[in-house]
Specification:
Helix content of chain A is 19%, strand content 33%. Chain A is built from four helices and nine strands, in the order E-E-E-H-E-E-E-E-E-H-H-E-H. Classes of the chains: A alpha+beta (134), B alpha/beta (485). The interface between A and B is small, with 10 and 10 residues.
Amino acid sequence: MKELEELFLPDDVQYTETHEWARDDSGSVTVGITDYAQDQLGDIVFVELPEVGDIFEEGEEFGTLESVKAVSEICMPVSGEITAINELLEEAPELVNQEPYNNGWIIKVKPDNPDEINNLMTSEEYVEMLKGEE
Amino acid sequence: MKELQGASGLILNEPLLWEKGKKGRCGFSMPRRDVVPSPVDEGLAGDGPDFPDLSEVDVVRHYTRLSQWNFGVDAGMYPLGSCTMKYNPKVNEREASLPGFAGAHPLLPPELSQGALELMYRLEQYLAGITGMDAVTLQPAAGAHGELTGMLLIRAYHKNRGSHRSKIIVPDTAHGTNPASAALCGFHPVAVKSGEDGIIPAEAIAAIMDEDTAGIMITNPNTLGLFEENIREIGEIVHSKGGLVYGDGANMNAVMGIVQMGKIGFDVMHLNLHKTFSTPHGGGGPGSGPVCVKDILKPFLPVPRIIKEGDKYTLSGDFPESIGKLQAFYGNFGVMIKACSYIMSMGSEGLKRASQLAVLNANYIKENLKDSLYLPYDRPCMHECVFSDKFQEGEKITTLDMAKCLMDYGFHPPTIYFPLVVHGAMMIEPTETESKEDIDHFIAALKAIVAEAGKDPDLLKRAPTRPKLRRLDETAAARKPCLAG
């Protein structure tokens, strides 16, 4: 397990309480799980993805991650429609462990409300929350 | 600690049978033909399966060697939490192999199966007595199948009353299959968090129980090995809004002969004969998950049901409100014989004593290890106790490392990373069948492992070193499974 200071928590994404991150690329929101989440889960062996066109509410479960330890849910950081899924993860689920913020992205969403992403935490706020969980 | 249980010895390698076979070898003699040759239907002719040619000794040595690589409850302590890996008395095997039972064909008519039907009828009565319920079906093939049966019964009950309820409450300390069983029946499972003390707060149920909720699924004792103390109150809340209470009886080994589930608010529950009632399991062996119900659910039980008329037993499908048939023939009959044998040989006092010892053993382990391993819920437990690797975080030693190392000491590892509510959980269930000496051995082994973690963590990272195979790459096995021989 990594120590708090060993975690990579970039500033250009927003964070959820359930350990997803969301990045706003001019109207399209990319979603993945944080370095903390992948470290806690351990080696991920399977990613269950939604289908493009599916619509979910903020906080709703849109897929699952199966690691050697357990199966966990992945939840929507914002409400919206799935516009893309990372098909690489089907063959290479380890990308979620190796590059959680880059090639390990999970879905892209067209948000119902482009401002909703601003309700999420900044990296500083997320670190504070993790300190509380220790 | 006296001599280590784990020692390395000569282990014989064994190839696949296909690599071992030699054309022309044979393990049996064909009997002399005593019928007239007759042509085979064209559609049935063709090449046979690709089986190797082997002699009797080839086959015997092959399986004997494989069995020597294995670790079972006949070889040593198997403290796999939530699985109740108790010793399976051999008398049960003897009863199940009686020719009248072992040779009985499932298509025999009831008049030629009176013994088998009587055994099933009696077993139903025993299980009803043990749980304090009114009627039992023996059909479900194992625990999760029992849950599914229970959910189908609850759905049939509400449908029969003209009400359509969409939700089922499932606490986070229930078995993982519970929400899946509810969802399979079309219910929407609603999760409830357990309280700080590890049990369900009645207020949490009161807050979400409504008239769209069909019922609640409670594992009691729960997966933290704790007794749900608010169970009566929770039952009253659920019943007052017209819901039913389902009990997951997988942990019944803690309370047999002590708690009558029917008297504390449960309307329907399943039992795992292969856990609580000492029939062999694991490795995919057959289970049996009878479902016990109160009178209100009796009309919906699966058919055929066993009916006693005078001294005769018959099978009846004449229950128009039944949810139907759930299993080929009548369930896993061999398992039923073994469970019935266990119940009859133990008697009611013996079953009660088994539960008492199971609880005592778990508490003994909990008290002896709580200074070495972090105990998230420090309170009396039932038949199992849950630790975590929190004390070992500094050395970066995980629950997995310690579990792997237990193999070097000659013990089967406990359940790990379950229940999910405890981070890095290690769930130990000794069962009643281990002696104090064996349990002391186990405690000493875990203490030695914890001490090693402090001194030489790298040693633990490499464990196990004594089994035939070392630490396996579980990640690669899951990501790129090799499914062919």
